[in-house]
């Protein structure tokens, strides 16, 4: 089974590119972030023509997550346990949840498409929200694994954290001064390791960026960031046979500012019953 994550930065703008890539790269399941539309606005027909089912979770023109799969998806969840909400200018509990998390099960593998809050600045309430969001995600993941021992779990998406200095090629980011590279964000990211969830791509692809800003020729200068990840528990990591970052998808006409990250899984006894596309 070939699984991928991609912040598509508006699916209605880029669905042609996404569908073409899915078919060309023989992807079984794609978790998408920043779809920027409601489910009824998602360009479902183009995906269905290519043999993919869509499950989307979006509330407005911001954020939004989705899955495209040519294998059956079950156990759909549009938030994780304890997920915090956010509303600018408001504090306290019971804030509205944003469309930032979507969970499905495919071939007995639990997958989450996640769009971690940006944080905006170290003094912005959104930064506190981001750290809380990551902490609650870790707690929810630990609880879920305790309830489902032995089940493969992957948390994949745009994490908006560059955990290592080698993940930062953009000179505009300064450790301890800007978001994405602050000590607290990195600590929140690596806290997943203590929960038994780690990056399954880096052991195979130790270097490479996944995001380049549109401004100031960031991509031609290769001033990027590695902020898109697939983290998995031990059971998921044991299934991984290969991984890749598809840098070339940042090229061409109207690309997303992010590129896909892919893992290949070896599922024991898995029959290839996917629909044939001609």
What characteristics describe this protein?
12 strands; six-stranded mixed sheet; Deoxyribonuclease I, Chain A; 278 residues
Bulk shape: globular
Which blocks of ≥5 consecutive residues have pLDDT under 50? Answer: 273-278
Helix content: 10-25%
The CATH topology is given as Deoxyribonuclease I, Chain A
Major sheet: arrangement of strands:
3-4-2-1-12-11
CATH class: Alpha Beta
How does this model look, in words?
The chain has helices at residues 11-24, 44-49, 125-147, 183-194, 234-237; strands at 2-7, 29-33, 53-57, 65-69, 74-77, 101-106, 109-115, 153-158, 197-199, 228-233, 240-245, 261-265. With 278 residues, the chain is α+β, with helices and mostly antiparallel strands. It has one domain (2-265): 4-Layer Sandwich (Deoxyribonuclease I, Chain A), CATH 3.60.10. The strands form 2 sheets. The protein has a 6-stranded mixed beta sheet with strand order 3-4-2-1-12-11. Strands 5-6-7-8-10-9 form a 6-stranded mixed beta sheet. Helix 1 (11-24) links the parallel strand 1 and strand 2. Helix 3 (125-147) runs parallel beside helix 4 (183-194). It starts with a strand and ends in a 13-residue tail after the last strand.
